[in-house]
Amino acid sequence: MGLILSLDYETSSPQDVTEIGAYRYAKTAKIMCAAYAIYEEGKFEPELVKPWRAWTGEPMPDELRYALEDHAVRKFAWNAQFERLITEHCTSVRVPLEQWYCTAARARASAYPGKLDLCAKALDIPQKKDLAGGKLMKKLSSEGTGTPEEYERVLKYCMQDVVVEATIGMVVRDLTPDEWQDYWVCERMNDRGIPVDIELARAAQRYAGIEAAEIAAELKQVTKGAVTSAKQFKRIKTWLIEHAPDLMDLLADEEGKVSLDKSARATALESDLDLPRDVEDLLHLIDDAGRASTAKYAAIEARADADGRLRGAYLFNGAGQTGRFSAMGFQPHNLVRDKLENGPEVISAVLDWASAVEVTSLSGQNMLTTLARMLRPTIVAEDGNVLVWADYSAVEARALPWLSGNAAANDLLDLFRKGEDVYKYAASDIYRVAVDRVDKAQRQMGKIAVLALGYQGGKNAFRKMARAYGLKIDDEAAEEIKVAWRHANPWAKKFWADLEGAAIRAARHPGKVQEAGRIRYLMHGDMLYALLPCGRLIAYPEAQLITVEGKFGPQTRLTALKASMHPKKGEDKWPRVALYGGLLAENATQGFCASLLRSAVRRLDDAGWPVVMHTHDEVLVEVAEDEIDDAKAALQEAMLTTQWPDLPLAAEPQHGYSYDK
């Protein structure tokens, strides 16, 4: 047990932190006020919170300075990166990275929301975030001036935040030493930054209007002229009422108000509703409009420093249920992998401010596709350096059967071990043709089946994955492929059932470990944990057993709080999710693969290789030109070294001056 400092700053700046990110913001910010508490771990009390009225010119309190300078004191903050950067740029105190701890990361690791007010609400703690004070804080933060009474009100808000943060810290589990090491490695990567071509990002934004027009044209086609812009919310809702009334009921709150924000669209697409094809297409097009490539280019320009490096793109434990990383601002996780045939010529044309007609003629694609395929080449090594990267080949498709521990999956795992084309074998099973007779289109369907159906997905999951690959499949064909894949992979169906059964048994018998394949479940209090082979935990808060009326009579179902969803207006209870076998398999597999990536990145960091980016299955380092071969060897060793010799992993390093696969 040691001392903890809980700290929260309120700052002002002419810049908007949500647009330029914390790294650029901190360089222009001034501290308005701060609140802090110093206490023994596990012994926080609200009366311990103290103020710093920085707006009056008051110097930093001595005890706060001493706590920051004392290496024995752990510094905690909600989204600690912000407090770390403000301390670095706005005070004379220098605190090593390894002394900072993030309470939000802890909350996400327990599958609670990453926003302070939502986490407090989900945990139902008596202390609540002061929302009214938050509005005043935003006003003073942007205007940079206020009355003494307004500043005192913001200080009160700041002190309440520390109470809420520290209280949450008393409730959620601490991270393990390995998890904290992973957090610091992530922050070092954020500090290092992604090398980007700002001029290319700036030039690409000239074509935003063309990109928007192409999305509008597709919307018009799908809705037969009823909707011509993703911003026409009234028209969209009117069209959906006519074409998907059940969906509108699902998304309506108790007052009948319907939301179509990102979370609502995800809920719609993940629901059990059998949505018409044109409704699915509309929802996907709204998503496309929201993540248009020109928005990514704008984020690159806004968030990159003068040295051409974009910092702070990664959020540790961003996907709380699995522990995968998420991103802020520029989204490196969903960059299009397909490259332009003549990318250098297209990029030169864009940099020369060529017309849209010239650019699309050169690329042979519409503007939407052209800009999307230019995003990877926007990541460019500094002069004298080169980028080296490697990705785990089909890592989830390898990990899922291995995690099942089922002997029936050995034939599939052997195909991976031998380096065979697994997607051709999947297509062979689906289309009942010899492996050497599988054509390109059939192999693509085999690939989609492997990626979409391993988590108990049905025809809708298959269609959704097919759409991501630019293919449209009708219901009948998707259903046939689903049935054929499940028949050829009986181990998967058994694993889904085993996982669900083990989780239910764990909930029925708290304190007793239940096994399913290589996954173990344990109920502790109201938290259900899945223990991965790597030792990391997946949390399911407030797990409960309920009885529902099923096809064959009453059935037991296991549910848990779902942090990614929010309560409807007027409701106090947090939304819940059913923990069926397929979802448990997906969480376990993605969580295990996230641990593989974490371990690889940690090994590279320990060895001094500068990781600048990673995705769910890929790691990228920036090195000197004469280090290419050594970097490739280090990448492969870091990614393929595990404690499980029978786990068939593969990763083939590549290199280039730009991130153009």
Describe the protein in words.
- The structure is a single chain.
- The chain has 661 residues and is an alpha+beta fold.
- The chain has 27 helices and 20 strands.
- Helix 5 crosses helix 7 and helix 21 packs across helix 24 (475-488).
- A hairpin with a 2-residue loop joins strand 15 and strand 16 (553-561).
- The strands form 6 sheets. The chain has a 5-stranded mixed β-sheet with strand order 3-2-1-4-5, sandwiched between helices.
- The radius of gyration is 26 Å and the shape is globular.
- Helix content is 48%, strand content 16%.
- The longest helix is centred in the last third of the chain and has 26 residues, at 581-606.
Write the layout of secondary structure elements.
Blueprint: E1 3-12, H1 17-26, E2 30-40, E3 50-52, H2 62-69, E4 74-77, H3 80-90, E5 100-102, H4 103-109, H5 116-123, H6 131-143, H7 148-171, H8 177-192, E6 194-195, H9 198-204, H10 208-222, H11 233-243, H12 245-251, H13 262-270, H14 277-290, H15 293-303, E7 309-310, E8 314-319, E9 324-327, H16 343-351, H17 356-363, H18 367-373, E10 385-391, H19 395-404, H20 410-417, H21 422-431, H22 440-453, H23 459-468, H24 475-488, H25 490-508, E11 514-516, E12 519-524, E13 527-531, E14 537-540, E15 544-550, E16 553-561, E17 576-578, H26 581-606, E18 611-614, E19 618-624, H27 628-640, E20 654-656
Parallel strand pairs: 1-4, 4-5
Antiparallel strand pairs: 1-2, 2-3, 6-7, 8-9, 10-19, 10-20, 11-12, 12-13, 13-14, 15-16, 16-17, 18-19
